[in-house]
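Is this the right way to post structure tokens for a design question? Let me know if I should format differently. Anyway, here goes:
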């Protein structure tokens, strides 16, 4: 009876260590993906790390697979911290969310809805407001 309990304990320990190694390799792949995507979009990956923030079952090609969500922080100009997220199934990136900022040079237009005040000092660029159909009242 003691040999069976020892064998069961060893199997549980091997399963736990195997799961930990698999998740560790997946996290390394997620760090690599986050780093390359941040570099592609001109963002700085802060702390050079990601953290597992969620798991969910997802149906893919008729079967259920486990999808992992990793969260990380990025900086646009070195003075801010914005959240980013990526989802992975196995080693494949399935979704990515990065903060988007639309910087532009203000233009003078005849439409008052599109007009944005020009900042008085030259080092601030305002955000362009995005209009939807419901924002424009006829």
């Amino acid at each position: 009876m003691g040999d069976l309990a020892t064998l069961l304990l060893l199997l549980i320990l091997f399963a736990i260590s195997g799961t930990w190694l698999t998740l560790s390799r997946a996290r390394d792949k997620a760090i690599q993906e986050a780093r390359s995507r941040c570099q592609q979009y001109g963002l700085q990956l802060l702390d050079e790390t990601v953290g597992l923030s969620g798991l969910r079952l997802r149906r893919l090609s008729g079967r259920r697979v486990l999808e992992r969500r990793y969260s990380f922080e990025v900086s646009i100009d070195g003075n801010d911290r914005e959240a980013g997220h990526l989802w992975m199934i196995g080693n494949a990136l399935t979704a990515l969310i990065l903060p988007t900022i639309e910087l532009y040079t203000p233009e003078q237009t005849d439409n008052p809805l599109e007009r944005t005040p020009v900042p008085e000092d030259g080092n601030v660029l305002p955000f362009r407001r995005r209009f939807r159909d419901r924002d424009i009242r006829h």
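Format looks fine. Someone answered above. Worth noting: The longest helix spans residues 2-40. DSSP finds one helix and five strands in the chain.
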